[in-house]
Amino acid sequence: MEITNLKLVNYRNYNQININFSKNINIIYGNNGTGKSNLIEAIYLLSLTKSFRTLDDKNLIKKGNNTALVKGIIDNIVYFIELSTTMKKTFINNKKINKIGDYISKVNIVLFNPLDTKILTDSPSVRRKMLNIEISQINKDYINLLSNYNRVLKHRNAYLKQLFLNGNSSLDYLNILTTKLIDLGIELYNIRSNYIEQINNNLTDIYKKIFDYGELKIKYITNFNKNKDDILKLFQKNYKKEISYGKTIFGVHHDDIEFVLDDYNIKEYGSVGQQKNSIISFKLAELPIIKKINGTYPILILDDLFSELDNKKINNIINMLNNEVQTFITTTDIDKVDKNLLKDSYIYCTNNEKIERID
Predict the structure, then answer these.
(1) Which of 69, 122, 168, 343 is the most buried (most CB within 10 A)?
(2) Cβ 346 vs Cβ 21: under 8 Å
(3) 299/1 Cα distance (integer angstroms)
(4) From first to last of its 359 residues, what are the pLDDT tens digits of the chain?
């Protein structure tokens, strides 16, 4: 997968830019606050229709404007997102796409950002969100399945609260909702479990190639790794507790993952460096999975990589990549970049509202 052209209008700090990219390595450098991350954020937006830095789309619009445009040519297809203070519109080859599920999974992005280490140390909901984002890129049905699960969960929680307030209400509707929740949950569990298994097939090998040591694995924590009858018994045994709590206490909405290095949970026992290294390895382990399923490698974005790793480890990463992986690397210090890497890359310099290619 390759983005050959990006056009931005009134996006973040840019009034208007139109830029072409190399199909191999693109290095973007400049001081902090000059627009490096804004550029890669726009590429990410074209994939998932969301920023990895803000939850409010209004923050993407340049101050003093009411709209912003992001347009990219990816594998000869035009992807276009129009942002306003009240709505967001998505287009593919000038055709408006009304359902997000019909847009996402078309453009595949793998992003490493220094803040990703929070994935390990933050709450389980952050790790579930990461899984949902990554899986949605390779499974076009996953978002709809997850949406259906969350809708049933919402109805079930509301009915549990109703049962608490009115003890004479029938349990029949609760049983219907429970069965539906289990069916959808098992589907989600199977997809997630398969994805984690594929990650684990590559993870240790990648970790060792970059960092020269360690057995790294992902452990999937769930109460849905049972057959349907056993899961149903679990709900039936605890329905009074759920009524008193007014919420569903079992289900894939409580799933979590652990990063385990040499049998130790990195969240509890790993150093900051090991946590960072694990996330980088996880991201790189996604590349062959996406290639196998979608037929092409995703676009790879390594944000501020040179501040995170020494040259040896960065060279290990670059040597692992082949010419099929279009890569974007941002840095504040071009002098830290290996000269051979510079020679083989397109180099861009950001300076406030401008970006230019350096020959």
Answers:
(1) 69
(2) yes
(3) 6
(4) 999 999 999 999 999 999 999 999 999 998 888 889 999 999 999 999 999 999 899 999 999 999 999 999 999 999 999 999 899 999 999 999 988 878 888 899 999 988 888 888 899 999 999 999 999 988 888 989 999 999 999 999 999 999 988 877 788 999 999 999 999 999 999 999 999 999 999 999 999 998 888 899 999 999 999 899 999 999 999 999 999 999 999 999 999 999 999 999 998 888 888 888 899 999 999 999 999 998 999 999 999 877 777 878 888 888 888 778 999 999 888 887 777 778 888 999 998 788 999 87
